[in-house]
């Protein structure tokens, strides 16, 4: 992690600041390994300090040591003492950057009072720009999370036609992921069934039964050491109808076109266009109501974003989803999503659950 700190420090001069006050806890964790719920990093070329409260002093010392980060750990026994320690550390610098996208007006006023005479400079994305591409350790954690979600889905899919509700399927997936080593689900697991619920891309599971003839969208990911995975597979309970098979094959073709478009130097808009063109050419472009994908790491949604309007260029080490879908009330919905890492010659798919058919496996016989 010392390399991460060096890379961010190299950006400070371009941002017009002498030091950076990092308050976003995701950025704090990425820089130092500290995972507590209250902490700030004062980052400068001449030294690093982590400021936290009395609950986390020992934890901070241990986690920074485990991460190989050399930093002063400063512990305040109250909110006032914590802010005083931040102000004292920042008083050594003339211009302090603060993460304006993550700071409330109230917090900014506290900074002003704690740092009289110091120029507070709003900055955006100084840490995120370096955090975006993943190193081998991060990719390994994401890959482990993918494997856990794959294994949980394989356990639960054969049960889809056995009288379970959306919520029961969700609960089983979450339970299996914990049993297989996840810290928990990566996000609120989505199980959406039927002509109404499956037409909602982010439907929250209810006590609705998965019934024969329903399309079912399952969006599931695991959390491992702070890192997320993300995957969607879609199914039909019972024998698929002709329209369901047609739409499934269309979405799968769209998703494969998107995967083929992912490579370093590719435009994020072009990847979205590759997926969207397949669905639009089939006459149901208005059924694809969201972007094609997003970055995944310490957050489930982070840069880069793959959609029609957000410009960006993919680079080696980006971990992104490719997840086209179609949704229409009365029909339901279908989405197919993989998580991939951008490599020097394209991408490597990290999720491995089968996607060649919407037909669930049969439940095991006894």
Please give a structural write-up.
A hairpin with a 2-residue loop joins strand 2 (39-44) and strand 3. A 6-stranded mixed sheet has the order 4-3-2-1-5-6. It has a 3-stranded antiparallel sheet with strand order 7-10-11. 35% of the residues lie in helices and 23% in strands. It has 2 domains: 2-131, Creatine Amidinohydrolase, Chain A, domain 1 (3-Layer(aba) Sandwich); 136-349, Alpha-Beta Complex (Creatine Amidinohydrolase), CATH 3.90.230. The chain has helices spanning 2-12, 25-32, 57-67, 79-90, 105-114, 128-131, 136-156, 166-179, 194-197, 242-261, 268-281; strands at residues 19-22, 39-44, 47-53, 72-76, 95-99, 119-123, 184-185, 190-193, 215-220, 222-224, 227-228, 231-236, 293-295, 302-306, 319-322, 325-328, 332-335, 338-343, 346-349. The model has no long low-confidence stretch (mean pLDDT 96). With 366 residues, it is α+β, with helices and mostly antiparallel strands.
Lay out the secondary structure.
Blueprint: H1 2-12, E1 19-22, H2 25-32, E2 39-44, E3 47-53, H3 57-67, E4 72-76, H4 79-90, E5 95-99, H5 105-114, E6 119-123, H6 128-131, H7 136-156, H8 166-179, E7 184-185, E8 190-193, H9 194-197, E9 215-220, E10 222-224, E11 227-228, E12 231-236, H10 242-261, H11 268-281, E13 293-295, E14 302-306, E15 319-322, E16 325-328, E17 332-335, E18 338-343, E19 346-349
Parallel strand pairs: 1-5, 3-4, 5-6
Antiparallel strand pairs: 1-2, 2-3, 7-10, 8-9, 9-12, 10-11, 13-14, 15-18, 16-17, 18-19
Helix pairs in contact: 4-5, 7-8, 10-11
């Amino acid at each position: 992690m010392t390399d991460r700190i060096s890379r961010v420090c190299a950006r400070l001069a371009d941002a017009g600041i002498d030091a950076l006050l990092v308050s976003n806890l995701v950025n704090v964790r990425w820089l130092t390994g500290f995972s507590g719920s209250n902490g700030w990093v004062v980052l400068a070329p001449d030294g690093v300090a982590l400021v936290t409260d009395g609950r986390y002093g020992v934890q901070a010392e241990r986690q920074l040591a485990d991460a190989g980060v050399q930093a002063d750990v400063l512990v305040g026994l109250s909110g006032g003492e914590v802010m005083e320690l931040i102000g004292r550390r920042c008083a050594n610098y003339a211009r302090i950057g603060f993460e304006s996208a993550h700071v409330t007006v109230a917090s900014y006023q506290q900074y002003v009072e704690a740092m009289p005479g110091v120029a507070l400079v709003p900055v955006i994305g100084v840490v995120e720009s370096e955090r975006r591409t993943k190193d081998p350790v991060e990719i390994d954690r994401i890959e482990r999370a993918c494997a856990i979600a794959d294994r949980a889905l394989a356990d639960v899919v054969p049960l889809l036609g056995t009288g379970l509700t959306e919520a029961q399927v969700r609960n089983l997936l979450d339970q299996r992921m914990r049993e297989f080593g996840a810290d928990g689900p990566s996000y609120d697991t989505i199980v959406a069934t039927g002509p109404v619920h499956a037409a909602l891309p982010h439907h929250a599971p209810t006590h609705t039964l998965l019934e024969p003839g329903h399309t079912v969208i399952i969006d599931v990911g695991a959390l491992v050491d702070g890192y997320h995975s993300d995957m969607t597979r879609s199914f039909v309970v019972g024998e698929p109808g002709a329209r369901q098979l047609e739409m499934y094959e269309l979405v799968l073709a769209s998703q494969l076109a998107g995967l083929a478009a992912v490579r370093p130097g590719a435009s994020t808009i072009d990847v979205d266009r590759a997926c969207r063109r397949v669905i639009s050419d089939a006459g149901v472009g208005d059924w694809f109501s969201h972007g094609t994908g997003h970055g995944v790491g310490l957050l489930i949604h982070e840069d880069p974003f793959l959609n029609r309007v957000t410009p960006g260029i993919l680079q080696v080490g980006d971990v992104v989803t490719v997840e086209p879908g179609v949704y229409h009330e009365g029909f339901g919905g279908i989405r197919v999503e993989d998580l991939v890492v951008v490599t020097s010659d394209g991408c490597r798919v990290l999720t491995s659950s089968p996607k060649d058919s919407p037909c669930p496996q049969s439940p095991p016989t006894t």
